[in-house]
Amino acid sequence: MPRGDDKNEPSFEVFSVKEGKEDKSFFNRIGTAFRHKDGEGHTISLNALPVNDKIVLRAPKERLEEMRSTEPRRRRERNDRDR
Among 8, 55, 53, which Cα is nearest to 31's? Predict the structure, then answer.
């Protein structure tokens, strides 16, 4: 799981997700999540409110690129997606 060890470094980016046509999803970044010092949770800071009932936390892209360069990537099929 991604970790933001530095107080100013977010652990996750927060997105509002809207389902579109043909099984496509549209992600709109609405905030960030910061790990608690004790490691037992996160504080979510929102810049906007979601327009629907689905919020997704994703690792920041910079860290994703680091992880992809060190770990082999597993191809996910459309049926493997979390909903």
Answer: 55
